[in-house]
Design goal:
The chain is of the alpha+beta class. The protein is built from four helices and 31 strands. Strand 19 and strand 20 form a beta hairpin.
Length: 433
């Protein structure tokens, strides 16, 4: 009689536990990166009133089955659907990320690493990339050249002092393209020349502009001389001798047959004579200048034909973006860009073996597999990041409501076991009356 009472109590406890899990799932239906849990039951150890016996060939008596009375149910397992992806929600926040794959973000509280699918990241007062709870997002750092240094994961910083500015670089190459018309009226004017300006930077990020005058010696021969120099828009007041030391009467000639440049490229601007802020002289590629019978039009630009070695002024960070492979790229107002680091992920043999730690975090356990402390590129197993999106909860409300109905009915049925058993005990007590 008492066994049925305790079976009913056991049933109430297990169904109450399942209802607790369902309630937690529904409460987190809009929690970023939340993974739904489910509960499985198993029966409890049985009380054997008669053991099984086998057939007896000598007596001809057949075998009998065991007689066992169950003692209710218990919670056998609680599973987390970690590998089931939730829906994607667009946020337009450049620091928000969604993982496409089965890996996990790596975050740290400063003492140990945790793992999460919630990619709603932001930056703190020190410019570090952190979760909404203040845990540091971990990854690989980049060196000064922007090369990712693979190794033990470290906190990633976006707006740190060393990332706020990018150093200026000197211009090493410039290019002039266009056309010189040998019959240009300027050659017969008072000045007797045409001019163009070449811009370049020194190692301190100052922008210089050299005025180059072109004088015609005959129809297809010209000389080029520096006749003026400004620094950040202000005339430097250089003497003629100083200007001529930069460029003086550089001879160029064109082919009469097709108007292409015959000699004179490249020119050299002797800018080292201007001061120690120039480490090298500047090469000026004029190989694309022609001498056709059309308007004179010369177009100078910084950099060589491929746009390399154009130099740059000092730059301040103006934008940050995260690529699909997790690389964090900073853009600067001088046109430069720099890779600051890379967000990496952790993979586990058994994702469901991770232990929930609250705040959308998980901890590694012996059954999930160990984290090696290094992590891996998200693309290593075919995954990727979706910048500007976060992964929502994977809770299926329809399934949860269905489970809630069956759980309620199970709880109700077990309560009836207790009620009926109590009535039977009451009848037993009334036998003496």
């Amino acid at each position: 009689m008492m066994r049925s009472l305790f079976s009913g109590v056991a049933g109430l406890k297990t169904h109450q536990t399942k209802m607790d899990v369902i309630g937690n799932n529904i409460a987190n239906v809009n929690t970023v990166g939340y993974k739904a849990q489910s509960v499985s039951f198993s029966d409890v150890l049985y009380q054997t009133t008669q053991s099984a016996s086998g057939p007896n060939a000598e007596t001809g008596r057949g075998g009998t089955n065991a007689m066992q009375i169950g003692l209710g149910s218990k919670v056998a397992a609680m599973s987390t659907s970690v590998s089931d992806s939730g829906g994607a929600q667009a946020t337009n926040n450049p620091f928000d990320l969604m993982i496409n794959g089965d890996s996990m973000f790596i975050v740290s509280d400063g003492t140990q690493n945790f793992f999460t699918r919630a990619g709603n990241f932001t930056t703190d007062g020190s410019g570090n990339l952190v979760t909404s709870a203040g845990y540091s997002v971990m990854g690989w750092l980049a060196d000064d050249e922007g090369n990712i240094q693979r190794g033990t994961v470290r906190p990633l910083s976006v707006y740190s002092a060393e990332n706020t500015y990018v150093n200026p670089t000197q211009t090493l190459n410039t290019t002039i393209s266009g056309n010189i018309n040998k019959e240009d009226e300027s050659f017969s004017s008072a000045s007797g020349s045409i001019s163009t300006n070449i811009s370049f930077y020194d190692n301190l990020g100052y922008e210089y502009r050299a005025t180059i005058s072109i004088t015609q010696t005959d129809d297809y021969s010209y000389s080029m001389t520096c006749t003026g120099m400004t620094c950040n828009g202000e005339d430097m007041g250089l003497t003629d001798a100083q200007l001529q030391s930069v460029l003086n009467n550089a001879a160029i000639t064109f082919n009469q047959a097709d108007g292409s440049l015959a000699t004179g490229s490249p020119l050299t601007l002797n800018v080292t004579s201007l001061g120690d802020s120039f480490a090298e002289d500047i090469s000026v590629d004029i190989s694309k200048v022609t001498c056709y019978g059309k308007d004179t039009s010369l177009v100078p630009k910084k950099g060589d034909a491929a746009g390399q070695n154009a130099g740059a002024a000092a730059g301040k960070i103006s934008s940050v973006s995260i690529q699909t492979d997790g690389k964090i790229v900073a853009g600067y107002d001088n046109g430069a860009s720099k890779i600051l680091g890379q967000i990496v992920v952790a993979t586990f043999t058994n994702l469901a073996g991770l232990e929930k730690a609250g705040s959308n975090l998980y901890s590694a356990t012996m059954n999930s597999g160990e984290f090696d402390g290094i992590g891996q590129d998200v693309t290593a197993d075919g995954g990727s990041f979706s910048p500007g999106y976060v992964e929502m909860s994977n809770v299926d409300l329809a399934g949860q409501f269905t489970d809630m109905i069956t759980t309620q009915r199970g709880f109700q049925a077990n309560s009836r076991i207790i009620t009926v058993s109590d009535t039977m005990l009451e009848e037993l007590i009334n036998l003496k009356r």
